[in-house]
Structure formats: C-alpha cells, structure tokens
Design a protein that fits this description.
This protein has 399 residues and is an alpha/beta fold. The chain has two domains: 149 residues, Aspartate Aminotransferase, domain 1 (Alpha-Beta Complex), CATH 3.90.1150; 222 residues, 3-Layer(aba) Sandwich (Aspartate Aminotransferase, domain 2). The strands form three sheets. The chain has a seven-stranded mixed sheet with strand order 2-8-7-6-5-3-4, sandwiched between helices. A three-stranded antiparallel sheet has the order 9-12-11. α6 links the parallel β3 and β4.
Length: 399
C-alpha cells in the first residue's frame, strides 16, 4: 500500500477533543463525569443570532459567498474592531473563514517558506495547534516559556534573546489558553518596542477571548504605533457568543487579506453563508445575552479559584481572562504518588469522575519538575462545586 507523507504522520492534534471523545465513551457506558476538559460555553447561542440565521435561510442565502466573506459581515467587523480596539480597517482588509483556526495555517503559509530556516515564536504552554501547524508548514518552532513566576507571561528579556533575523512570526494569545493570562497595555508596549528592531517579523495576535477579560481592559498589539500593518488580528464568534459549532472566524490585515482570500478559495471556497449572516447580528445586534454570559464566567472564575486553592497540594493563580485556569499540582502529585500531571489526569477521570487536561497536552512543560492541569470553567457553578468536592474526596482517599 502507498505510504502517507511524513507531514501527515507527524501532524499534531488538539487533545481537548481526544479527551472529550474519551469522556463521551465513559458517559455512554453509564459513567458520571463532570468535564472541565473542553473550552466550549455551556450556554445556547443567543436567540437574536439564531433568528438571524433563520431569516437568512428564509431569504434564500443558500449559495456561495465571496471567498473573503459577505460585505455586510466584513463591514460589521470593521465597526466592531473600531469600537473594541480603536483601530481603523476597511472592509477589504477583513477575511472571513470557517472558524478562527484556519487563519493559523493561512498565516504560516503566507509569511514563512518551507525548509529555509524561518522561525516562529509561540507561547508554551499554548494552544497545541500553533506547534502542530508551525511544523506542518515547514517552519521552525521556537517556544516562549510561560512561567508561573511571571504570572504566566513570558519574559521580555527572553523574547529579546530569542528573536533574530530568521524570525518571521510571533504568535501572541491574550487572554491565553490554557493559563487565562491577559496581557496588559504596558506588556504589549514592551513587546512592540522589541519588534520595531525586527521589521521582517509579523505578529499573529490570537484574540478570540478578547471579550472575556475579567479584570481591566483588553489590549491589542494592533493598536500600538506602527504595529497594525504587520499584525494579523484574529478573532471569531465561537467563545463570545456561544457559537462554537457555527464555525465563524475572521482576520484583519491590510497586506495579507488578498492572500488569505486566495487560500480560502483554494480550501473551503467560502465560509458558511448562514453563519455569516448570524455573525452580522452577533456583532451588530443586542448584546444582553453576551453580557450575561460574561458576567457568569467571572463569577465562575472566582468560585473555581477559591475551590482549587482549598485542595491539598494545589496552587491556582487567578486568571485574568478566558474561561481557563492552570493550577500547579506539583505538590499534589508528590502527596499522592503521581509521576506526572497526565497520570493524575487519568486517575481523576477514572476514579473521581472529573475530566481535565494535563500540561503535556499543551506542549512540553517549560519546567520539567513542575506539573499543571487545565480546567475549563465553562460549566455551571453547581458542577464546579461538585467537581471540587469529588477531587477533595479523592485526595483524602488516596492519601
């Protein structure tokens, strides 16, 4: 039989979906699982957005759209970015895709060449698709360690030491998956200062959690002087509007927008037409349901921080955004004889009925002697309380 390519054999994955499949199998077998494993809002898509999609169907919006997206949505994105970031774009600078994730691949393909030594700086721990797509594109991944001692930001000195003439892309993610870290304006300014000495380096600013900042204001590097043209601003509807299954994302960048549109023509032809009309309503319509969801996530953040810090051997920093928390379980592993966070994750799933993700699923931990897990608190407050209770009971039983 013919063989598959090395690129395909070595292609990484997003482990949240692997664990989700494991959880679903256990539930189908009668298991009682509380899952903190998947980053998906537990709310329904707001009714006004659903109604807009229904109108689009009734009005016959069933065919192909322009590869870059319908004009109405691109105009809505322009208005939204002006309101939320204070940055000015034109509709032709906006490209729409089936989710935000494709733009990771499109960006890498647009700014790096295969096998010529181009480097990409990315946060680790981080969204696993960054590393996966960097390698698949033929560029060289260079990790920026996010350390608990720095409140899960990377050191500016570390960035300065790693960036060089071969660096073609810096990936930023704020608020951050998996730590919940949200970059403040002074940090963004320091990053921009370093980048000004490296004009060949683009920035992919993954801002899909931009409307989930619990403390302070969201800051985008696109708003820094001289940074907008070289920044690919990436956002989408999945998290802010509970639209994960609708698959709707967009990117803003002046020079790359035509190339992104060509990549979409080569791959999907266009984003889902009905989802695009729903996206217009999401950005332009009533925001009451969105605001209610965000207030709930902040309450849940406070609840899970308190609960985790009440467990023996667990230390959890207060995340500034998104709906993730990245507690240190090093001492718990020592107390319970676990050799790794992955071993702890498996034991929690099968013995306590609690699903989380382990640090190894977000890249090799920057400090090998430290162990972390990720909780997504996109679950009800009652489930948070029950999950913490189960873990407390498990810890007492194992110890």
């Amino acid at each position: 039989m013919p063989s598959v390519s090395e690129r395909t054999r070595n292609l990484g994955t997003e482990h949240a979906f692997v664990v989700l499949a494991e959880v679903n199998r256990l539930v189908a077998q009668g298991g009682d699982i509380i899952s903190f494993a998947i980053g998906q809002p537990d709310f329904a898509t707001p009714p006004n957005i659903c109604d807009a999609a229904k109108r689009a169907i009734d009005q016959g919006h069933h065919g192909y759209t322009p590869s870059a997206g319908i004009p109405e949505l691109r105009e809505a994105v322009v208005d939204y970015l002006a309101r939320s970031r204070g940055v000015t774009y034109r509709p032709e600078d906006i490209t729409v895709a089936n989710g935000a994730k494709p733009f990771i691949m499109y960006t890498l393909l647009a700014v790096t060449d295969h096998g010529v030594g181009h480097e990409v700086l990315y946060p680790r721990p981080g969204f696993p698709i960054y590393d996966s797509q960097i390698i698949a594109s033929g560029a060289r991944p260079v990790a920026l360690p996010l350390l608990e001692s720095e409140a899960f930001s990377f050191s500016i000195d570390e960035l300065a030491s790693l960036i060089n003439a071969n660096t073609r892309l810096l990936i930023l993610n704020s608020p951050h998956n998996p730590t919940g870290r949200s970059l403040a304006q002074p940090e963004i300014g320091d990053i921009a200062d370093i980048l000004r000495d490296f004009p060949q380096c683009w920035v992919l600013s993954d801002e899909v959690y931009s409307r989930m900042v619990h403390d302070g204001e969201f800051a985008s590097i696109a708003g820094e002087p001289g940074m907008q043209e070289r920044t690919i601003l990436l956002d989408g509807a999945s998290k802010s509007y509970a639209m994960t299954g609708w698959r709707l994302g967009y990117a803003a960048n002046v020079p790359l927008a035509p190339y992104f549109s060509t990549w979409i023509t080569n791959t999907d032809s266009c984003a889902n037409s009905i989802a695009q009309w729903a996206g217009v309503e999401a950005l332009n319509g009533d925001q009451t349901e969105h605001q209610r969801m965000m207030a709930s996530f902040t309450r849940r953040r406070d609840r899970i921080v308190a609960g985790l810090n009440g467990l023996d051997g667990v230390r959890a920093l207060r995340p500034g955004g998104a709906f993730y928390i990245w507690p240190n379980v090093t001492e718990l592993c020592r107390l319970t004889g676990m050799g790794s966070a992955e071993e702890l994750r498996r034991r929690w799933l099968h013995e306590a009925g609690v699903a989380v993700l382990a640090d190894i699923q977000f890249g090799v931990p920057p400090q090998a002697q430290e162990h972390y897990v990720r909780f997504s608190y996109a679950v009800s407050e009652a489930q948070i309380d029950e999950g913490i209770r189960r873990l407390r009971d498990w810890i007492q039983a194992v110890r």
